[in-house]
Design goal:
The chain is 39% helix and 15% strand. The protein is of the alpha/beta class and 341 residues long. Strands 3-12-9-4-7-5-6 form a seven-stranded mixed β-sheet, with helices on both faces. A hairpin with a 2-residue loop joins strand 1 and strand 2. It is globular, with a radius of gyration of 21 Å. The mean pLDDT is 93.
C-alpha cells in the first residue's frame, strides 16, 4: 500500500518489485494502444505529408488500398508478436487465468461468444489475441481469432498491429471467410455485447446486452458451427464508471454516439501508474475466463426467425448454466444472477 496525500493514495515507488513494475508497464502500453494508437498513427502519417518523407506516405497508401480487405479475409497473424514476453507480464498484472470445461475437436470450427464486454475487454484480448494464457495448450489444434470493430482497421499502421495479433474485422464477410476459407480448427471469438454493454460495466455488474443480439445465432446456423459461451469473471470490476441511468442526458449522448460510430464513450476511471486512486489503468483484479461446453448447431441456410429464436433461447440457457455453475468459485454470491437486457 502507498501513502495518502489529499485523498490520493500514491504508490510507494521505492518498494515496488521490478516484476510488478514491468507488469504495470505492459498493461499501460496496451491501454494506450487501445485508446490512442489509431489516432496517433493517423496524426503521424498526416504530418509526414508535409515533410521530405511524403513519398513514404504515398507508398503506404498504395499498399493500404491494395491490402484494404485483408482484415476481413483471415488477417495476417504473426505468432512471434502473439508470443511477446510483454503479454505474460500483462497476464500476471491482474492475474488472468483461462479455464476450460470441455475439449474441442480440431476437425470442427467454433464460434466463441465472450461475455461481458467490460470497458476494454481485457479478458478477451489477453486470452484470444495473445498466447499468454496458454490457449493452444488447453485446446490443441484450435486457433483463436478475436474479432474487433472495423474502424480499428481504418487507421494506418494500427491495422497492421491488430492483424499481427491475429485480430480480424467483426463483420459478416470476415466470419464467412474464417469459416469457409481457413479450414477447420478455428475458434472465432465475438464479444457480442459490444459498445452498448460497455455502458453497463461497473464493479459488481452482471448486466448483459444479449436479448436482441441474434446475428451471431444466424451465423452459427448458416455455417453449422457450435456455439461456445465464454464468461469473464472479474471483467466488470476493472474500472469504475460514472452513473448513466436510462433517460439521462449523458446516457442519451452515449447512445447517440454508439449508433453513429459503433463504439461508446464511457466515462470511467481505474487507477494510475503512480497512484491507486485515479487513472486509465485497470485495477489489479483477478480475471478468470471460463470456456463453456459447445452447444451443437445443425447447419440451416436462411434459417427462419422461429428457429433463430429457439437457438437463441438455448444459448442463453447454456450461458446461464455456465455462469451459475462457476460463480461461487470466483467470488460471486449465490443470490446474484445474470441480468439480460
Amino acid at each position: 500500500m502507498g501513502r495518502k496525500i489529499f485523498g490520493i493514495e500514491f504508490v510507494d515507488i521505492f518498494n515496488i518489485p521490478m516484476e510488478r513494475r514491468l507488469q504495470t508497464l505492459a498493461v499501460f502500453q496496451w491501454t494506450l494502444t487501445f485508446l490512442f494508437l489509431g489516432i496517433a498513427c493517423l496524426t503521424v502519417v498526416l504530418a509526414m505529408c508535409f515533410t521530405c518523407f511524403a513519398f513514404l506516405v504515398l507508398l503506404y497508401t498504395a499498399w493500404y488500398m491494395y491490402d484494404f480487405y485483408t482484415p476481413e479475409r483471415g488477417g495476417r497473424r504473426w505468432d512471434w508478436v502473439r508470443n511477446w514476453k510483454i503479454w505474460r507480464y500483462y497476464r500476471d498484472y491482474f492475474p488472468v487465468t483461462l479455464h476450460k470445461t470441455s475439449d474441442l475437436c480440431p476437425s470442427k470450427n467454433y464460434l466463441f461468444v465472450y461475455h461481458p464486454h467490460g470497458i476494454m475487454a481485457h479478458g478477451a484480448f489477453i486470452n484470444f489475441g495473445t498466447e499468454a494464457t496458454g490457449f493452444k495448450k488447453l485446446f490443441p489444434g484450435i486457433r483463436s481469432t478475436l474479432l474487433s470493430l472495423k474502424y480499428q482497421f481504418l487507421f494506418p499502421f494500427n491495422r497492421e498491429y491488430c492483424m499481427a495479433l491475429g485480430v480480424c474485422t467483426c463483420s459478416k464477410a470476415s466470419i464467412d471467410w474464417l469459416f469457409t476459407k481457413e479450414g477447420t480448427g478455428n475458434a472465432v471469438v465475438l464479444v457480442v455485447g459490444g459498445a452498448a454493454e460497455a455502458l453497463e460495466s461497473r464493479p459488481g455488474s452482471l448486466t448483459l446486452t444479449l436479448s436482441k443480439r441474434k446475428g451471431f445465432i444466424r451465423m452459427a446456423l448458416e455455417h453449422g458451427v457450435p456455439l461456445v459461451p465464454v464468461f469473464g469473471f472479474g471483467e466488470t470490476s476493472l474500472y469504475c464508471q460514472m452513473s448513466n441511468p436510462e433517460g439521462s442526458l449523458l446516457r442519451r449522448f452515449q447512445t447517440t454516439m454508439t449508433k453513429l460510430f459503433t463504439f461508446s464513450p464511457p466515462i470511467f476511471h481505474g487507477r494510475g501508474i503512480f497512484n491507486y486512486t485515479f487513472g486509465i489503468m485497470p485495477y489489479r483484479q483477478p480475471l478468470n475466463i471460463v470456456v463453456g461446453k459447445p452447444l451443437e448447431v445443425e447447419q440451416v441456410k436462411n434459417a427462419s426467425d422461429s428457429l433463430v429464436n429457439e437457438l437463441h433461447s438455448k444459448y442463453m440457457e447454456s450461458l446461464n448454466e455456465l455462469f451459475e455453475s462457476n460463480k461461487l468459485k470466483y467470488g460471486i454470491d449465490e443470490s446474484r444472477h445474470l441480468v439480460i437486457i
